[in-house]
Amino acid sequence: MNNDLITALVDNEISDKNLIQRLNEQISYDSSLKYDYNIQLFCKKIVTQRVKKVSAPQHLRSRIISEIMPKELEPKKKHNFLLDIFYRPSFSFATAIIIVVAIILITINRNTQTSIPEIDLANLTPDNMFLQAVNNYSSILNGQLTPQFLSENSKEICNYFSKNGVNYSTIVPEFKEWKLLGAVISEDKGTKLAHHVYVGNNNQIIYVFQVNESYINNLIELDPELVNYLDSGNCYSKEINGNLVLFSKMEQNICAVIANGDFNYVKNNFCSLN
Amino acid sequence: MTDPNTQKKLYEDFEREAIPHMDALYNFAFRLTGDSDDADDLVQETYLRAFRFFDKFEQGTNCKAWLFRILKNTFINKYRKDTKEPDKVDYEEVDNYYENIKPSNADSAHLEKDIYDNLLDDEVSEAVNSLPEDFRTVIILCDLEGYTYEEIADFIDIPVGTVRSRLHRARKMLFTRLHKYAADKGFIVKEQK
Lengths: 274, 193
Known about the structure:
The complex is a heterodimer. By secondary structure, chain A is an alpha+beta fold. Chain A has helices at residues 4-10, 17-29, 31-50, 58-68, 81-87, 89-109, 129-141, 154-163, 224-231, 263-271; strands at residues 149-150, 179-188, 191-199, 205-212, 236-240, 243-250, 253-259. The N and C termini of chain A lie far apart (68 Å). Chain B is mostly helical. Helices cover 69% and strands 0% of the residues of chain B. In chain B, helix 3 (36-52) crosses helix 4 (63-78), helix 4 packs across helix 9 (149-156) and helix 7 (121-129) crosses helix 10 (160-184). Chain B starts with a helix and ends in a 9-residue tail after the last helix.
């Protein structure tokens, strides 16, 4: 018998039921054939389960599209207002003076955003990071959203993000009282986004959704006042449905943190990271 | 072709038909070249070439297979030009090793367990990447991408029977490499016949 047929059997590539039956019978009494069959099955399993697929990076996708997209379909470049006025000779000098004075006045009188923005959950759209984070947390608590990758190691989680298409650097801090549980990668309009989860004592679950700031209000919505508030170095927190919702900026990422349990500890941990 | 409307239509068709296969092509390119920068270049060149000839592509036929063929040919022309031909395999050596490690009772269960439990994911990937190109290709397309024999035959332009026999040998070869890794690390003891 042609030994290749056991490969076809492993791959479900034989439609003839009689042949399948004959092969199975032969495998059951021929130990050498059985060995070959098991090895074929094993190799298929180990490749399927242990070799990770890699996705095309976003920069490559953009590069290819920009190379082939016809000129008339390219998004029109916005005019740079400031440069435009400086290029108009009749306005250039006077405009320059006015702008310089205005900048000085603004700088002197600048108020950093200190008032806490009011976020009303009911008015948020599904594209909003705030609403997504709150909904994701409910799904985690209900068991509808479980980690795709389990690890207690922050480095492994960061590697998982970068190897699986998250195209921004991620921060996964470790804390004494909480253990990392794992991570999830979501996809929004073809862009991969990073989420990770910690667990603590007394069923405490801490969920972190981090997005590079360049995606904010391009890919994913977030109240501009809240963005300004975070940009000014503040940490935002609010209690919703008995859980703490916290927003902070960690390096170049905007992070949504949602937790039950010890709110002060959560605040101390995440608000000290920006 | 200079008519802007035709060009626009061509681009829109291409975007709908070809761009969604980029992840599969990239994964294949990455496994073929073993390097992310080379995979970037290979996929980019494949898409640029495909777009250049997209007006010749017969709509409704298998666009993915067409892209895979372009990628494979680009790889052969560009990355293999120094060696001119794929790696030669001493299959007799593989067969000897394979037969040599076969346990006397031909029961592979403990061998499989030792390999599966002890080797790291990276070591398994490395073993796949170390296979000669033709064998690596069928393993990736079948076991990693989940394509049928007929699709693979279409992608790389070989008969279905060749896909089957190549896969059979590729997996035997992969098993001997995994076994060698595990034996070198002391996870299994070679049972010499």
